[in-house]
Amino acid sequence: MALSPEQTRCNYQSDVEQPATYEMSRIKPVIQPFAGRIGGNQEIVLDRSDPQNADLLKKIPDAAPLMSFRDGTDLRGFWDLDLWKFGFIEMIGVFSTTTFLGPLFGGISNWFFLTLFIFSFSNVSGSHLNPTISVATFFARLISFPRMVIYVLCQTLGGALAGFILRKAYGARDFTCGGCAVELSDVPVDEAFLLEFIFTLILIFLSFGVGLDPRQGKIYGAALSPFLVGMVLGTLSWGSAFVRTGFAGASMNPARCFGVYVATSFPTYHWIHWVGPVVASVAHGVVYYVVPPWGH
User: Fold this and answer.
1) For residue 119, is it within any domain?
2) Is pTM, for the whole model, over 0.90?
3) Which superkingdom (predicted)?
4) How many domains does the chain have?
């Protein structure tokens, strides 16, 4: 017996559309709550005062902001396989965003590449892509100590791998890179350290302001903040290259300069690219503690 068009339509919906909808309803995106996520303005976090979140916060203490010192330094996080997976993503991000261009093209590439990688990796690792951000979020009590160590280790490894490939591609070790070169005859090392500290501190304050402030999420949302964070890095990378003769710009990313030095050689001033961001992170952490964005 022939079926009417209406019966055919009903059978088709029953056989195709309903099973597809049923299967799709069982698939959910995996997004772990994380207070230190760049670009999310702390939208995907837990309420630490809610008793229902207690068990998850024991496993992921940085799923909510303002951790206690005890929770933030819980070393059991080193045995969390997910953190190492996220660290691997950070390594890929640093490896892919490490640029060795001049200030103009380097600033532009930093802007666009960082923006795109934040969009790509924010829901996975939080898209720090820079030891400076990882250390700064730790002192702001937004990430745990194990996560910070794992991220910084993997980010540095990503920079080193990029340096090895650069050396092979360049075919020599005698080259310099903007943000990682200082002419000591023109700029004493203490002044170079001060410049690195100032620009890194600006980077941290602006990145937190546009990418980690929960109050900004209601103003422009999470979609615009990765673009603004990329703009911050690109502008500072370009502008810092012209403040002083002999100073090739602020690094603001220790992993990037570490990769450059692996490809060339370690100069006597290489420590400023690590100490400057750490000191800037501590200074910002003090301000963040005094004027936190969250109220009790």
Assistant:
1) yes
2) no
3) Eukaryota
4) 1
